[in-house]
Amino acid sequence: MSESPAKPPAIDWEAVESTKEFKELRRKRRGFVLPMAALFLLWYLLYVLLADYAHDFMAYKLLGNINVGLVLGLLQFVSTFVITGLYVRFANRNLDPVADRIREQIEGTGK
Amino acid sequence: MKDFLAEAAGPASNNPILNICIFAAFVIITLVIVVVVSRRNSTAADFYTAGHSFTGAQNGIAISGDYLSAASFLGIAGAIALNGYDGFLYSIGFLVAWLVALLLVAELMRNTGRYTMADVLSFRMKQRPVRTAAAVSTLAVTFFYLLAQMAGAGGLVALLLGVTSKFGQGIVIAVVGVVMITYVLVGGMRGTTWVQIIKAALLIVGAAVMFVWVLSLFGFNLSALLGTAASKAGEHGEALLSPGKQYGKTGLTQLDFVSLGLALVLGTAGLPHILMRFYTVPNAKEARKSVVWAIWLIGIFYLFTLVLGYGAAALVGPAAIDAAPGKAKTRQRRCSPRRLVDRFCWV
């Protein structure tokens, strides 16, 4: 089943690209991915700046030897896992069905 | 008990013959696997992309094996043991970077259906200048990556095989390099993927065992572990627990840290050897699954190294680690798993 990057026979990619369905798919994807990317990058940047310039705040102990810095760092782990889960759920529900439909149309009719 | 451990700060009991035998056994076993697996290679697509035949889970494990290198394991544990929190920051950057790959890169790359990063970049552009740029970038990244890995390998070799002369270390590193080249030439992407899967399993299970072991020495109390680490660090031990020990000294080092943070989070999604791995799966959905598996494995692993790093500070002591002459890689050696295991065996 090995495939080189050869072009499949006679598919008008530009036509597919201009269909409403494809544009809708693209819009949906960007509507999730871009704001989410901005969000996690800002949260990460905030964390970096706090760790860099707010030492006293980060060193403040909350429970025993566990300080704010450690909690924020662990929260970065948590947010990473959560965002991963959210994206997978979004992609499975909203992107995959549309993409599969478009693919069937392309490969089914060969157009 | 911990005083006893502290006094037993002599050189670890070391059996070079045993270590060489274990090392050789691993090399032979993985070479055999590579050769067997390579029999199924027959086309260019097989060699470069394993015929797109790996599942998302297998690929994810391989990616994490690829990503969790000497820098991740030894480097971060050592950095945490010596510089405390500033070392932990590295692992956060290394992990969050995977969201860039998940959201913006992985599936789109897979959908272009090419072999390498250069193919994707030059997809719709002028071939020659873009490919040249991509090749230069790949070589530059790979060169620095190799430097760090080889330094780690040299340090480990000196510790585990008892080879301390520069010449001897050089020979062993050269041998390791030849073995690596053989893996790739013979096995192609299939072979190297299976090697990475095996490595990831061993690494993560080993780190998990050590994680539980270290925590158990402190009654599974993270706060107690941190406290002991801070007290072991001498006068200004508390600095180990909060940011700033390494990067907080001057305004310039603080800017350096912001630059580091950006490099960590944006760099991963551009690593050529990571990007290539997205082609070993049949479609974009499996590429997505690969990244999810990788994120979970890498995230859990960095939680382990947090405890291992502070555990090394608490059990071996930053002074002992720092007292080893030489540069950071020496400190890596001191924090090597072998050393920690030897500590535990005194319990």
TrEMBL record, chain A:
Annotated membrane-spanning segments are 32-50, 62-88
Give the UniProt keywords, A-Z: Membrane, Transmembrane, Transmembrane helix
> One matching Pfam family, short form?
DUF485
Q: Where is the signal peptide?
A: none
Name of this protein? DUF485 domain-containing protein
